[in-house]
Design brief:
mainly beta; Jelly Rolls; seven-stranded mixed beta sheet; signal
């Protein structure tokens, strides 16, 4: 026996200027055999046929304790949801309810009763309207049935969900708003606002690993232990006086304990977790039910750089995550000025941030032409290269650091205009050139040795026929606060070390106009930075290193990356040196880092800018074990970096290192973008 009931729970007469946008349709085919992305709590997937059409659930289908649910993204600004569906009620229903929830709130509750115990089916056509404006929605369908599915059950089909959208030009609105009356908030940006995402989207996880958690059918950025902080600095290119933030916050395995969670914006507390406003959903299968809440907060601000940071108390075994993070702003009337309190109250002497792109490297396909600014190298201790003259009658009883291959040292400097190096060079070898580099710039070519190939000292009466020991001084214009001094000599092929240097002094120079030269110009005043190899007996490499270059590009998931699997590990260091930047006071540096293979939660990738640490992050291989660069290839996880730093020099050096690595973890980089601004980051 089949009974048909037509129910319309609510009816809205839509204004003529309001339109609808279809969000999703499900189970509309005559025949289907998949859950179409719906999650099921308390049952396995069951399919039935009623009136010649498939039903999700149905006879002997969903019953006591069963809920089906679906998260839907609604990127269009909207104020109302319209939902249509057919619900089948099978066999004995004793004044029990079919319930529809939206974001944990009951939006429809329909009483069903039948006096028959078997072979009875009825379907209820429902059309439901309810107010809703969040950028996503969790729909739940459940019942109050209390018996097994062979006595009473339910199922659904023909689900149609539409959003009644805001007037064109409104990013937020209520039901009655027109273009003239809707809130003037404009959407600035969003993170984690799709049903699937694979990166951190620029967020930094302090002292824990970057990860995404699929709670059954719902993806969130998180499963972060309480006590771990996550943050991101956002650049908003418009000018504004007020900010609105919307996001969905999840607590996982934490219902039994009251934990303090908070969100800060530029150090100000703007939100605190309120457990009385949360809804529950048991989908992660990790412990207790999950709690979630849709947050909507406003705060006064006209800062174009806003750091949002989540904090929480620490409690063992409890976790949290976020998704659908949206930022809106009320704009200034004049976008060339800053304003405060209102769109027309202008701030005098405004300092408007305006980042302009100046570098774009490692994008698209680049393996055939790698940018010269990037170098991947492996450092070795130079201590075994400390040597003494091999002539039996050497004129000077000295020791020196042998000059073969490439030898380098990094120096941290104060603000300066020039760089000066003074050193002695020893040779008893045949004639050759030693190249002195400051950073990647050739500063001098030094010719040492004699043209004769005879380097045998035997028979020398004075001990100086085949020896040179000469003082050199080299000065270059230089302003970078971090520099690398490199000597490139002959390739070492074995035997005695016949050339080297010692008594290396490095100075920075600045103009001092209180001291004049004979010609009346300002004098250069020098400050000592370091002295190396000044002793008669040398036992230490003084932090000078030998270097072997090994830069190459690989492919991961069809994209070229600099480095990659079996290319850059803890033994290699990567340097990016960029010069001739436009005049600026701050930098924005963006890139995508590929973490590959066996990273564990004690290993970090660390980035320094001009010898100052600006970023560190770790990942865990088990979190991305199913994501492969290619069939049978290395596992990988992409982490997006978005850095803002104060910086005014014409060049900068980035150094990338693996900290505490074991040697079986690798990384690569691509999509490197640098933008500059003439405003100071406060």
């Amino acid at each position: 026996m089949i009974k048909i009931i037509l129910l319309i729970s609510s009816l809205f007469i839509l204004n003529s200027y309001q339109a609808s946008q279809q969000i999703g349709t499900f189970f509309t085919e005559t025949t289907f055999s998949s859950s179409q992305g719906w999650g099921i709590i308390g049952s396995s997937a069951i399919y039935d046929t009623q009136m010649g059409k498939s039903v999700f659930g149905g006879k002997n289908g969903f019953a006591v304790g069963t809920t089906i649910y679906k998260l839907l993204e609604i990127p269009q600004p909207h104020h109302t949801i319209r939902m249509k569906l057919r619900i089948w009620a099978i066999n004995k229903w004793e004044s029990e309810y079919i319930i529809v929830k939206a974001d944990g709130v009951v939006v429809n509750k329909q009483l069903v009763h039948s006096g028959l115990t078997s072979n009875f089916a009825q379907f209820l056509f429902q059309e439901i309207f309810f107010f809703h404006s969040a950028p996503s929605i969790i729909i739940e369908i459940t019942s109050t049935l209390d018996e097994a599915n062979n006595n009473e059950s339910w199922g659904v089909r023909d689900i149609d969900i539409q959003a009644i959208t805001c007037p064109v030009g409104c990013d937020l609105c209520s039901y009655s708003d027109t273009l003239d009356t809707c809130p003037k908030y404009q959407l600035q940006t969003s993170n984690f606002a799709t049903s699937t995402f694979t990166t951190n989207q620029g967020w930094v996880v302090q002292d824990s690993v970057v990860q995404q958690l699929f709670c059954d059918k719902i993806l969130m950025f998180g499963y972060f232990p309480t006590g771990v902080s996550i943050f991101k600095k956002f650049y908003l290119p418009t000018t504004f006086y007020k900010v609105k933030v919307k996001f969905q916050f999840w607590k996982i395995d934490a219902i039994s304990t009251s934990i303090s969670h908070a969100l800060y914006a530029n150090g100000d507390n703007i939100w605190n977790f309120d457990q009385t406003k949360t809804k529950t959903l048991n989908i992660c299968s990790l412990g207790s039910n999950e709690e979630y809440v849709n947050v909507d907060i406003e705060f006064e601000s006209n800062s174009q750089l806003i750091t949002f940071q989540f904090y929480s108390d620490s409690a063992a075994g409890e976790y949290y995550g976020i998704r659908d993070f949206y930022i809106y702003a009320l704009l200034c009337e004049d976008q060339t000025m800053l304003c405060i309190n209102s769109p027309t109250e202008i701030v005098t002497n405004p300092d408007i941030m305006d980042f302009q792109q100046s570098v774009s490297d490692l994008v698209a396909s680049f393996s055939s032409s790698l940018p010269s600014e990037w170098s991947s190298y492996q450092s070795f201790s130079a201590t075994p290269r400390i040597s003494v003259p091999k002539c039996t009658e050497a004129s000077v009883p000295i020791q020196y650091m042998a000059l073969y291959d490439t030898l380098y040292k990094d120096f941290t400097l104060n603000i300066h205009k020039t760089l000066k190096m003074i050193f002695y060079m020893y040779s008893q070898s045949k004639q050759n050139d030693v190249l002195l580099y400051v950073d990647d710039n050739l500063a001098d070519t030094i010719q040492i040795g004699y043209s004769s190939n005879d380097v045998n000292c035997a028979g020398s009466a004075s001990g100086d026929k085949y020896e040179e020991y000469t003082l050199y001084a080299v000065e270059v214009d230089h302003t970078s606060l971090l520099t690398r001094i490199s000597f490139k000599g002959r390739t070492y092929t074995g035997g005695n070390f016949l050339q080297g240097f010692n008594k290396f002094e490095i100075y920075t120079g600045n103009c001092d106009c209180e001291i004049c030269t004979d010609s009346g110009t300002c004098a250069t005043v020098y400050s000592l930075v370091d002295i190396d190899f000044a002793q008669d007996t040398l036992t230490d490499n003084e932090k000078w290193q030998l270097i072997t270059y090994s830069i190459q590009a690989t492919t991961c998931n069809t994209k070229e990356i600099l480095g990659g699997y079996n290319v850059i590990s803890k033994a290699q260091q990567v340097r990016a040196l960029y010069k001739s930047l436009p005049t600026h006071l701050s930098l924005r540096i963006q890139m995508n880092i590929y973490f590959l293979s066996n990273w564990i939660n004690t290993e970090y990738l660390v980035i320094t800018l001009d010898n100052v640490e600006v970023w560190r992050q770790k990942v865990l291989q088990t979190n991305y074990a199913s994501q492969l660069c290619s069939a049978g290839g290395a596992t990988y996880q992409v982490v997006e970096i978005d850095l803002y730093v104060s910086h005014a020099q014409s060049e900068f050096t980035l150094i990338f290192n693996i900290e505490s690595g074991s040697g079986d973890e690798y990384w690569g980089v691509r999509d490197f973008i640098v933008s500059t601004s003439n405003q100071i980051i406060s």
